[in-house]
């Protein structure tokens, strides 16, 4: 999209322009074009990744040697700072999700005023926090995804992102994640109708919704979350993704380093550490830590006293 817009704005005739015409001059214009749009570094790198992959595919698909100029562009530095939503923020957010507070005014666009409220928005946010999964996965969760074995329940979730990237099509190839049904998630599922829908093919989130479960519903979750969170005036800019980061941060604290990926499905600890763990929450969890733990020392002293007392009693009985 942006590549075509850039070429058109710079006077190139798209009808006669070919892939072989791409050179350093064109790449420079594309770079400047994306810079002017003030994309975040991650988004900027993403588009250049698309262009690089396209030229690579074209060369391999048509067995045509072509120089990949996009590949040489230096990517921007990424310094992710994962932030988790606090319990107070989360509760306050759910409380303000109402039709009357859903009005959003846009300076540009076909519809200058929109109501971002949806009856299922709060439930979508709750499911995201309690499962730690992405929007696409949450939207497509079905009641028959819930599995139970010896009284222990979990939700089998398709990892759409990995399956799409790795072109895993068949059920045997696809990657699935198993989400534990915690007490709080179980309670949420009960509220959403577990007893009525268990083992059915109905969607867990908004089963009666008629709109597309793709882009439209995903956008509603993202935009709705941002719109309502901004009304809390916390001074922070959190997005829907913070719910996944909150879940993974708490899970990492509970499971311990090296074990979290068994639940989240990540390939390694480094990805989790860099992109999902809120260091402030880790610090909060460790606030009772002490290099010289007085309680442990006291327990050790009491145990030593008990041992010594028992030895004295045994010696006394022998003497008697």
Care to describe what's here?
50% of the residues lie in helices and 7% in strands. It is built from 15 helices and 5 strands. A 3-stranded antiparallel beta sheet has the order 3-4-5, with no helix packed on it. Strands 1-2 form a two-stranded antiparallel sheet. β1 and β2 form a beta hairpin. The chain is globular, with a radius of gyration of 27 Å.
Shape: globular
Per DSSP, the total helix count is 15
Order of helices and strands: HHHHEEHHEEHEHHHHHHHH
Strand count: 5
Secondary structure category: mainly alpha
Q: Residue share in helices?
A: 40-55%
**Mean pLDDT over the full residue set:** 83
Rg over C-alpha atoms, rounded to the nearest angstrom: 27 Å
Q: What strand line-up does the widest sheet have?
A: 3-4-5
N- to C-terminal separation? 96 Å
